Amino acid sequence: MTGPIGHRSASRAKAAATGPLVAAALSIAAQSIAAPAHAADADHGATLFGQCVACHGERGAGTDRGPSLIGVIGRPAGRVPGFPYSRAMQQSPIVWNDDKLSDYLVDPQQVVPGNRMPFAGFETKDDGLDVVAYIKRLETKVSK
């Protein structure tokens, strides 16, 4: 008989059969959601930038050993007038953006093989993004 009791039993059986499928679908969906992007920390970047000061100057304005970093985002690589860039940097097709500059700050030779920057790189992409955030902060101070 398929009275109210039989109907409930069928519903329960159906739920029991589809429950694992729903759980599996939710698990797959959760795994496909990307981790949240790193919120760049300019204060941490300022600390890390201490490793850059000897060549790029206290405020990133450049020295005879390192080009100015002011305005670097959006600038083609190797294009600060008067700075003697390596041939590799001069010929690089890169236009600096946050991600590319961060990658360069983590592994300069990987991004522009043959460049002359003596710095081996920061440990993590997040460190690079933090330094980029600090450089952008320097830019806003210069433009005021």
Structural descriptors:
144 residues; mainly alpha; Cytochrome Bc1 Complex, Chain D, domain 2; 2 domains; 7 helices
In words, what does this structure look like?
This protein is mainly alpha-helical and 144 residues long. The protein contains 7 helices and no strands. The protein folds into 2 domains: 1-33; 42-143, Cytochrome c-like domain (Cytochrome Bc1 Complex, Chain D, domain 2, Orthogonal Bundle), CATH 1.10.760. It has helices spanning 4-32, 42-49, 53-56, 87-91, 98-106, 108-111, 125-143. It is globular and about 60 Å long. The mean pLDDT is 85.
Write the layout of secondary structure elements.
Blueprint: H1 4-32, H2 42-49, H3 53-56, H4 87-91, H5 98-106, H6 108-111, H7 125-143
Helix pairs in contact: 2-7, 5-7
Number of strands: 0
Amount of helix? 40-55%
Query: What is the first-to-last residue Cα distance?
Result: 83 Å
Q: SSE order, as H and E?
A: HHHHHHH
Largest sheet features = none
Which word captures the global form?
globular
The CATH class label of the largest domain is Mainly Alpha
Strand fraction band? under 5%
InterPro entries: Cyt_c-like_dom, Cyt_c-like_dom_sf, Cyt_c_1A/1B
Protein name: C-type cytochrome
Keywords: Electron transport, Heme, Iron, Metal-binding, Signal, Transport
GO molecular function: electron transfer activity; heme binding; metal ion binding
